[in-house]
Amino acid sequence: MALSYIGWVDGISASGIVIFATSFGLFFFYKSRKSKLPLLSYAGLMIIFVGWLWLGPTCDFLSVSLTGKNLDPILLYPILSYMWAAPALICASYIFTELILPKRKVIIMTFYIILSIIFELYLFLDTKNSFTFNPYKPNEDLIDVRFALGSPAFILIAINLLSVFLFALVYLYRGFQKTGILRKKYIFIAFSYIIFVLCGGIDSLTSPGVFLALIRVVGISCALFIYYGLREEPEKIEKVPIKKEIEIKESLFRIAKRPSEITEEEVSVSKEKKICLVCKGKVSGFETFICPECETFYCHKCVRALIEQENMCWACSAPIDKSKPVKPFKKEGEIDNKIPKKPKKKD
Predict the structure, then answer these.
(1) What sign results for the dihedral spanned by CA atoms 30, 190, 123, 61?
(2) pTM above 0.90, yes or no
(3) 3-state secondary structure of 290
(4) Residue 237 predicted with pLDDT over 50
(5) Other CB atoms within 10 Å distance of the CB of residue 169
(6) At residue 249, does pLDDT exceed 60?
(7) Which of 36, 81, 170, 219 could cysteine-pair with 56, CB 3.0–4.6 Å?
(8) Which domains, and CATH codes, for the chain?
(9) 285-323 in b/e burial notation, b at 16+ Cβ within 10 A?
(10) What is the pLDDT of residues 10-66, one digit of tens each?
């Protein structure tokens, strides 16, 4: 028996999400390797897992199209769909801890890993009681599955969605605290999470049809938002000659000597062009350190070198790492206040 019109719309929209998410996730891996941004790899995994949440209707669509029968056994449908929710949440929480709470990464990741394991156990061992199956025309429409309200699996998936939404609110808050490119990046990531939560929630509550297909098309945009939030900025930076105070020797970066004076123009260029105040190299994305006092840009290599040498911002002299002592910089020709003792003359 042929698929109905609703079946075609449901199947094509679900298949489109799976194909797009898989392709875009692989693109994330490529860009991550090329730009050396590890978080893009985790974002790629997250996008792939999110797309595979529609693997159930996709497989059912292929089954009806090729064999004329719905997926059998029917309990395979929710398992194929929702087994990817836990790994997607783990990737999302890892990105969140890396960007927002790196010092609490172990605690937060442990919590969500345990939560994910419990969800997977209910999904595989209590599938029948975790879902309800709405009426549909066998072999004409695709299977229509909903979480059973009040079931442990439903409560756990609700906690997952609520967590992702809270992540989005934190990203928004952090974005409004920042300026320039970092503000834009945090807001992009927040929009990505919000779109996923809203579209995923509507998808799970809406019957198959044209409206559901439109919601799925909008949901695809979450992949674009998170890419723009994590990617390396392509803007062109004016080349500034590297000063003699910076040396590259045997692939090791070090600061030979701090300039006697940092001009306002150098600081302004660092902020406007997003270049490191020390080495004048391009900085972008989250591989960047910004002084919390004056918002001057540094690359991670220069910051590590500065912490070891003097632990002070070159622009405002604020401590970079407050947990370590500051070693004030003395300009050339500066006279120490202490008067050296004259050596005693021998009789």
Answers:
(1) negative
(2) no
(3) strand
(4) no
(5) 12
(6) no
(7) 81
(8) 5-230 (1.20.1070.10), 235-329 (3.30.40)
(9) bbebbbbeebbbbbbebbbebbbeebbbbbbeeebbeee
(10) 889 999 999 999 999 999 888 888 877 788 889 899 999 999 999 999 999 999 888
